[in-house]
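In line with agreed milestones, work has continued on tokenised descriptions of protein folds. One protein thus recorded appears below exactly as we store it:

>
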Amino acid sequence: MVASESDILAKAEEWAKDARGVAVATVIETWGSAPRPVGSHLVIDENGSFLGSVSGGCVEGAVVTEALDVIENGKPKTIEFGVADETAWKVGLSCGGTIRVYVEKVE
């Protein structure tokens, strides 16, 4: 069963209340064929546990890595993956689209 967006955000709140470092990644823009719509979330804790999806699984690993940096330094970032981007091929975004994901620390 796929977690709902409200379940994902509730998990972020739960982890933050447990004094874990937490980040939320949100799809803010898509072009062409994209596996998840704008507004989709992935929540990540400081241990690398996560819930949700920003890409249907094809770039989650890279987003988790970026989120761990955001948790550590507190600076939000926007990352982009697309079919023409060599990084996208490395992480598996071969659907022909582009996604932009905003990653921020939960305070």
Notes: The first strand starts at residue 22 and ends at 31. The chain is about 30% helix and 30% strand. The two ends are 29 Å apart (CA to CA). Helices lie at 5-17, 60-73, 86-91.
